[in-house]
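=== Per-residue structure ===
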Amino acid sequence: MLRRRTHVSMATTPRRPTAPSAESASIPNLVEILVGQNLLSPEEREQVARYMTVQQLSEEAALRRLGRLSEDEITQAIAKHVQLPYLKINPLDLDLDVVTAALPAPFARRHTMCAVSKHGNTVTLAIYNPFNRAPLTDLQQFGALEVKLVVCSRTDIETVNKGFYDLKTSLKAAESQLTEGRVTAIDITNQEFLSGPSVEMDPTMQPVITALDNMLTHAFDQRASDIHMEPKRNIALVRLRIDGVLHDVHVIPKIVYQAVVSRVKMLSGLNIAEKRRPQDGRIKRNESGKEVEIRVSTMPTIFGEKAVLRIFDPDILLKSIPELGFSETELPRFMPFLENREGIILVTGPTGSGKTTTLYSVLKQMSRPEVNIVTVEDPVELVYDDFNQIQIRPDIDITFANAIRTVLRQDPDIVMVGEIRDTETADMAIQAALTGHLVFSTLHTNDAPSAITRLLDLGVPPFLITSTLIGVLAQRLVRTICQKCVDDVKPTEDDALGLAAPFEKIRDLTFRHGQGCIHCRQTGYHGRSGIYEIMPASRKLRKLIVSKTSSPEIVKTARDEGMRTLRESAIQKLVKGDTTVSEVIRVTGR
């Protein structure tokens, strides 16, 4: 059989070629390369040499143990030495089929390399050791492809290989076993779905279990807050929400997808057979030594069941208050709210604006042995031992209003009401505040002053609002600039237009942005921070509320008393260098 040759394209040959070494050999003369680029001093070279001798380690292992340089810095030096491009892999930009089809898994793992892209007949391979020529010679047997090389760190390549090959293997195994009829199948007829009659794989089969485990692990590794599993006409899509933005991650076979969703429903205690009605459940999972809760929501769509898994990481939900993102001027305005023993504090904002994180963090700080904290939620976002948490269940008449009524007979000090949705809940929350309890709750309004209008719309008498309201906190979340790739940038006229500011006033400022790196998955952002609009219920505002003054007048008075708008809070973070112009505009509008 004739072999089609593969052309390997490199910028230049390495300046220090060595004999081919088996497997993924260490980088030869690594310390000398680093010294030659002034990344290590001669004194540090001697220290590394002594450490290698005493600990019997390779150069690379000694450098890692001593912490002289980061892995990325070492990899960049190697790339510069052999005159090849250096690449930081963004797993969210990779195609599952490209990664797994270009190279066999054993070969990729053995030689620490992976495919990162394919354009026409050219595939770009990420390699860790450009000095090892043996695998490049072996590539000739894998088809008529032109190969371009880039240098990546060992950790990045191994992360891609582990996640992508394991997931692909489990999906292929599930699909092939179902196709060959070697697994138990469940016949399903869904007249609601355009897909019509179908066959679903048994969700207890090992390939299905492995596929879901790999998806969850990948989501945790990527710091995802939500996993969206969406059925389409012939395939299914898995998307991750990271720092508030959705990214397409995996495309999986439709027939396997149905089994994966059933597996999710099984783990979350839902009815697998019921596919016509929305269902809600939760999963507890141990990840990296800590217990993570996943809230599951399923609903029927035209092509099948969609599932959304919201990940609640205790490290994120239970932050300290200073970690939430309050500025030096905002924190002193908010903290006095918490010094009250009775009254109601409202947190407002749309879904996904961080209200739950703020409330949980506040309750955690106020939690003490002598304080009885009770929460009434729908659903309970995170189970926390220091709180007495109640799950709303309207099907057995446990509503917000009824639950609050019961809670008041349980001798509470602090009551957290997940959301004020209707007049009855609003009345009960106000009554709880009137009877000597500190009440926290949320409202869906666009800004802090609108919370007053919303309470009036729900029928709460103005005198009760003024008697109980301590203050209102409106919030949003903006993505923060990745500190690993941050760089300065000068404002442009488009920036001025988006900020509604004269260009002459901002052109001499220096803004910051992230260039994109593996740490931030090439987005330029890593993490999110809150922007806040804080409105204490002052005497003047109470008078306006009693007189049912219009919302614009309430806004004007609050501004005169020092309230910063969400836009101003975001711009403060922009000037400080925490976020970007585009993020300010995305969150607060033009």
The longest strand covers residues 469-481. The CA atoms of residues 276 and 300 lie 6 Å apart. DSSP finds 23 helices and 21 strands in the chain. Residues 154-179 form the longest helix (26 residues).
